[in-house]
Every structure is written in structure tokens, then in C-alpha cells.
Fold this sequence. Notes:
By secondary structure, the chain is mostly helical. It contains 3 helices and no strands. The longest helix is centred in the N-terminal third of the chain and has 43 residues, at 2-44.
Amino acid sequence: MSGISGxxxxxxxxxxxxxxxxxxNANNGITQAASNIAQQTTNAERDPQAVLANAVTQxxxxxxxxxxxxxxxxxxxxxxxxxxxxxxxxxxxxxxxANDTIGTIIDxxx
Length: 110
């Protein structure tokens, strides 16, 4: 029986670590996307000449790179916020299930 509980313990620990890692990654992604959006909003509020100069510079960079940089794309950052939010919810569910499993094991053993 100790072999079975050892396997269950390893699986539960793995689930907890996976859930915590997923939450941490989702939090980092949300923070980065929100920061990118805030920075873009701040840039958009500058005076019209600076915005025009920035637009010209941006256009030249886009021509050189063919595709726009994902760091400068508000849509990409909004999608990143949504994806990381979903990842956080999924990771929280993993932690919830692991917690319920631990509770069931304790109830069974006691």
C-alpha cells in the first residue's frame, strides 16, 4: 500500500507544481501584455508631430521586416491577455482538483 500512496503523492505533487507553474506563467503573460498596452496608450497620447514621426518610423520598420512586430500590436497583446487569463483559470482548476484529491485521500485514510 505504501507503493500506491507514493505514486499518488508524486502525482499530486506534480499536479500542484504544474498548477503553480501555470499560474505564474499566466501572471507573467498578463503583466507583460498589460504593460505593452499601457506603453502603446502612452505613446498614442503624445503630441501630433511626435505621433506622426513615430508613424513614419514604424512604417519604415514594417517595410524592412515585412510583418509588424507582435510587441507593437495591440490586438496581439489583447489576445495574450485573454489566453493568459484562460491559462490562469485552467491552472487554478488543476490546483483545485489536486486539493480535492488530497482531501479525499486524507478522509479515506482517517
